[in-house]
């Protein structure tokens, strides 16, 4: 038995060494260091070397489109928003997943750029079934106290538009940190908060959707994972954590919901990083799932929708067409889901649920108020 174990260990070392040599040969040391790939390549190589989990039958692909949505201030911002939504409605109406559902967008709207002229049209799009609104924030030189107060004001503003609050008054939100600097990972200029993960959790954050952050020191060492980060004494507490796993519910720590990161792409759909068929396939091949439920694959990609608006009438249309042609039938089922719905499916998996993930879209967190047709604004 001991000889067998030693043999397995040497095989693992041999395989990892070969993979490392291939990666270095392809990229070069300069590229690896320049783009800070040394932070995540060890975990990436280890995952490649590990045996893929067995998975038979139909595989379900949960596609989550996360938008760092920044239309801007004043009436100009409102006009940008209206035009973008007009284009997006036209795009989404042309597409359906395996269950006949149109693409679901998640607008992570920056509270630091709050614009009451934008929200009515965005809320209308939510009520019409095009997606949901979540919390995005750029901030700097904050303290634990000032950040807590800022989050409280922000949630009150969003809740007044029916976002991040359900019909029973329960507040829950997904979060994207501006400039990638979650938990003060890039310093006070882009954050400053010593215990950001802990504060977010207490405020009602169900998961962070910031990463990957390719080329930034904020990028975690852990890649292609859904995992839980516990607040530590130093910054960047999310660098490592415990994987989401069937049979293990974690109500204490903050879920880090990552998008794909590999040698071909980093899950960004932008005018400078177009979603080719090869990149799209690499997202699914990144195999992000809850441990013990490999047949449910999560693909979270991000964009800056208004800055990359032109591609939403062209390349994004082609991206959705490829997803539907390749992953909506046969051995796959395609699910267009919001960030909240993807989180709910993760929790269902942890809770041992199986079968069709569409059953669990509202499993843990109910839909926000503004998904009700006709909702406008709560004043006072």
Can you walk me through this structure?
The radius of gyration is 21 Å and the shape is globular. It has two domains: 2-49, no CATH class; 59-371, TIM Barrel (Alpha-Beta Barrel), CATH 3.20.20. The protein starts with a helix and ends in a 30-residue tail after the last helix. Residues 1-8 have low confidence and may be disordered. It contains ten helices and ten strands. It has helices at residues 2-27, 29-34, 41-49, 74-92, 119-127, 144-160, 196-203, 277-285, 315-327, 339-350; strands spanning 59-68, 105-110, 131-137, 173-177, 205-208, 226-229, 242-243, 254-257, 296-303, 332-337. Strands 1, 2, 3, 4, 5, 6, 7, 8, 9 and 10 form a ten-stranded mixed sheet that branches. The chain is 34% helix and 15% strand. With 380 residues, it is an alpha/beta fold. The longest helix has 26 residues, at 2-27.
What is the overall silhouette? globular
State the domain count.
2
The string of secondary-structure elements, in order, is HHHEHEHEHEHEEEEHEHEH
Helix proportion range: 25-40%
Number of helices: 10
Strand content: 5-15%
Please provide the count of β strands: 10
Oligomer: single chain
> Do you know the CATH topology of the largest domain?
TIM Barrel
- How confident overall, as mean pLDDT? 93
Structural class: alpha/beta
Largest sheet: 10 strands, mixed
The CATH fourth-level homologous superfamily of the largest domain: Glycoside hydrolase/deacetylase
């Amino acid at each position: 038995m001991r000889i067998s174990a030693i043999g397995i260990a040497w095989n693992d070392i041999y395989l990892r060494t070969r993979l490392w040599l291939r990666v270095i040969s392809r990229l070069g040391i300069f590229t690896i260091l320049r783009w800070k790939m040394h932070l995540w390549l060890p975990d990436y190589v280890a995952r490649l070397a590990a045996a893929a989990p067995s998975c038979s039958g139909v595989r379900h692909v949960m596609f989550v489109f996360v938008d760092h949505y920044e239309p801007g201030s004043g009436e100009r911002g409102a006009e940008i928003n209206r035009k973008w939504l007009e284009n997006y409605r036209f795009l989404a109406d042309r597409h359906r997943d395996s269950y006949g559902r149109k693409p679901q967008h998640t607008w992570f709207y920056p509270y630091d750029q709050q614009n009451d002229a934008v929200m009515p049209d965005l809320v209308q799009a939510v009520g019409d079934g095009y997606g949901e609104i979540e919390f995005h924030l750029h901030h700097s030189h904050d303290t634990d106290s000032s950040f807590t107060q800022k989050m409280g004001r922000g949630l009150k503003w969003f809740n007044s538009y029916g976002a991040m609050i359900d019909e029973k008054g329960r507040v829950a939100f997904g979060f994207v940190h501006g400039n990638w600097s979650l938990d003060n990972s890039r310093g006070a200029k882009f954050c400053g908060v010593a215990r950001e993960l802990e504060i977010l959790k207490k405020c009602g954050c169900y998961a962070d959707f910031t990463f990957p952050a390719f080329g930034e020191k904020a990028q975690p060492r852990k890649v292609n994972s859904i995992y839980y980060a516990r607040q530590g004494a130093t910054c960047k507490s999310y660098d490592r954590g415990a994987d989401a796993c069937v049979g293990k519910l974690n109500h204490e720590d903050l879920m880090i919901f990552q998008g794909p990161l590999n040698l071909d792409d980093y899950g960004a759909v932008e005018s400078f990083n177009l979603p080719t068929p090869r990149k799209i396939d690499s997202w699914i091949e990144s195999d992000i799932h809850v441990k013990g439920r490999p047949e449910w694959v999560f693909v979270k990609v991000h964009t800056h929708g208004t800055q990359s608006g032109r591609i939403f009438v062209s390349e994004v249309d082609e991206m959705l067409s490829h997803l539907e042609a390749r992953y909506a039938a046969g051995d796959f089922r395609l699910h267009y889901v919001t960030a909240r719905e993807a989180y709910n499916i993760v929790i269902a998996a942890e809770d041992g649920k199986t079968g069709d993930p569409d059953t669990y879209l509202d499993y843990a967190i109910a839909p926000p108020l503004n998904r009700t047709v006709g909702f406008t604004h709560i004043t006072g």
